[in-house]
Every structure is written in C-alpha cells, then in structure tokens.
Amino acid sequence: MRYVFRVDASFQMGTGHVMRCLIIADELKKQHQCSSIIFICREFQGNMIDFIMKKGYQVRLLPSINSTETANSKKIDSSWLGTSWENDAKQTIHIFKELHEPIDWIIIDHYGIDSRWQKEVKEHVNKIMVIDDLANRSHFCDVILDQNFYHDYNSRYDSLVPKRCIKLLGPDYVLLRPEFMITEKKAIDKIKKKRKIFISFGGADPTNETEKALNALKKIKTNHDLEIDVVVGKGNPHKERIKRICDTGSFRYFCQVNNIAQLMADADLAIGAGGISIYERLYMGLPSITISTADNQTKALNDLALEGYVYYLGESKEVSEILIENTVLHFLLNRLELKRYEFNERSNFLWEQLQNPSNNQQKDTDKKGFL
C-alpha cells in the first residue's frame, strides 16, 4: 500500500495540520509495516519538513514560489497554497508520476484545497481522504474527517461531499497521540501539592498569546505560589523571546516536547488556543481558559463554551492581559468553579467519547479499517 499526504505548515497556518497527519501516518506504519508513506509539502517559512523527516518519513518538496507569483495571483487559495490551486495540483501530479507506482490513498489536510484540486488529481490515485474543520467548501473525496465538536457537527458536510463519502465527524474520531492513552490514569487520580498552570498556544502562536499570558501571570505568580509550565512549538517565531521571559520570570520553558500529556496531567489549569490541544486537555481532565487565535477556532470554542467544556475569553484581539489575569484569579479563588470544568456531567459526556472512540457499534463496523 502507498499512502501520500498533501499537507503544509507555516507561521501563518501553524503546525496542527502536519501533527494530525503524523498521527495517522504513525498508525498506518504500525498497522501496515510494509506500506510506503510519503509527504508532499511546500517549503514555507515555519514549515515542519525537517520534523517529518526525523520521524522517518520521506518528503517530496513542491517548487518554491517566488513573491512575484504569489502577489500576482488573485486566487483565494493562493494565501494557503502559495500559488493557484491549478498550479499546485499540476506540481503534485508531477511528483505522482515520478513515483512510478500506484497511489492507494492521498490524505489531504489543507485549507487551500477543495473539490477542483481533488478532481484534477483523482485519475492518479485510488482513494481520497480529506481532513478539514472549516466546512466552507466542497470536497470530492471518499472519506472526510472533522474531529471537532460543533452543535451541528453531524450535518455540516451534508451538501459539501459526495453521498458515497464516509463521514468521520465529531470527537468520536479525535486524533490523539499515544502518549495521552498512557497518561490518562494520572489525570483522574492526580493529587496536587502546589497549584500549577499550563500555558500552550500550539506550534506557531502567530499572535503571541503566550507572551500575553506570561505578562498576565507575572503579577500573581508569587502571591499565589504558582508553578507555571510554558510549552511552545518549534514553529513559534517568538520562541527565543518567550524563553528569555521564562528564564527571568522563573517559568519552566519547554519547546517541541514529547511529554506534553504528562505536563497536562500535572497541571490544575490551562491557558491555550483552539485546535487539537482542546481535546487533549479535555481528555486529561484539565480545565481550560481559551483564546481564539484564528478564525477557524472561533465557532468551535463558542460551541464548546456553551456546553460548559471550556471557559472562552474571546478572539485574541479582544483579550487583554488584565482579562487573563482576572480570569485566572477568579479560578484560583474559586476552587469549586475550577472543579466544575474538570468532570461535571457535561464534560463527562465528551470525555467519554474521547476515551471510547466510535462507541456506536454499527458506525464502527461500517467505518473502521478503511485505510
């Protein structure tokens, strides 16, 4: 079997697309030891190409796009692809042909790709899987995965994918790394000697919410005897500045760690963004103060907050240091309020879905093992 991933990372789009593709790739490698797995990426600033290669996967690079070509392109998708969808599809097909072997599956995780691109490459691949969370464009695919919780998650793609498409929607299908499965018990039985706050805004954090949160916590850290862990990704353009702040403020600094589940398990409260990290924190039973750092996070965070799963402060441009400070103080001084976000009846429902993916037996029978 040959699997190809079309995915990018950059300072603009973050690293989450690559990380969730790697979860699938690792599982495929474990299940099909003789499979060929190839990533096709463009070399944007803030890319994860070296990280993918260090994980043992082959990466084929699409041609670099010069600034003139990008500026001259009026296509909406060019802001994500760096070029028009037609050009990106043509370049991808060229790589297909260089492989000289049939492609069983192409797995696409990219906001710049829609049904036009997918139809263009279809004759060169057997099956197409799409990972998405926007539900704002049509897809020509055999499988679509959107692991996010929305009030309407079961119907969001009804008019956007072919009727034959297998839809893997909602937190039943959340992509969690194996480390979270190992660490789950500690999240339930944790006993704290000292209150600890966990700060992480994903792999890139383009709006630098990490620094905003650190500045907010400087004022209350000593008075409330807090330990604060700060995790940034390799693709964070502010990571050196964040490290200096942590060094001078006695915060613990971590960059691109492999034990993030343990750090979450040890914490009492998290401050972070949307994306996959929300479901990681829910899985670990960690209450979260959340800030939207991208347009695609806002609806999911709103819906999760309305159900009582997270405490949502708003979009990054609306959230000040003083708002973060006051919210953290509120939770520190109201332990029962904090506990409400750990394991109340509402959060238990979602947490159980995360622990027992595909609880619906018929759904599981129909959809498992398609890759």
From TrEMBL:
<dbReference type="GO" id="GO:0016758">
    <property type="term" value="F:hexosyltransferase activity"/>
</dbReference>
<keyword id="KW-0472">Membrane</keyword>
<feature type="domain" description="Glycosyl transferase family 28 C-terminal">
    <location>
        <begin position="212"/>
        <end position="339"/>
    </location>
</feature>
<dbReference type="InterPro" id="IPR020023">
    <property type="entry name" value="PseG"/>
</dbReference>
<dbReference type="GO" id="GO:0016787">
    <property type="term" value="F:hydrolase activity"/>
</dbReference>
<protein>
    <submittedName>
        <fullName>UDP-2,4-diacetamido-2,4, 6-trideoxy-beta-L-altropyranose hydrolase</fullName>
        <ecNumber>3.6.1.57</ecNumber>
    </submittedName>
</protein>
<dbReference type="Pfam" id="PF04101">
    <property type="entry name" value="Glyco_tran_28_C"/>
</dbReference>
<dbReference type="InterPro" id="IPR007235">
    <property type="entry name" value="Glyco_trans_28_C"/>
</dbReference>
<feature type="active site" description="Proton acceptor">
    <location>
        <position position="17"/>
    </location>
</feature>
<keyword id="KW-0378">Hydrolase</keyword>
<feature type="binding site">
    <location>
        <position position="177"/>
    </location>
    <ligand>
        <name>substrate</name>
    </ligand>
</feature>
<feature type="binding site">
    <location>
        <position position="280"/>
    </location>
    <ligand>
        <name>substrate</name>
    </ligand>
</feature>
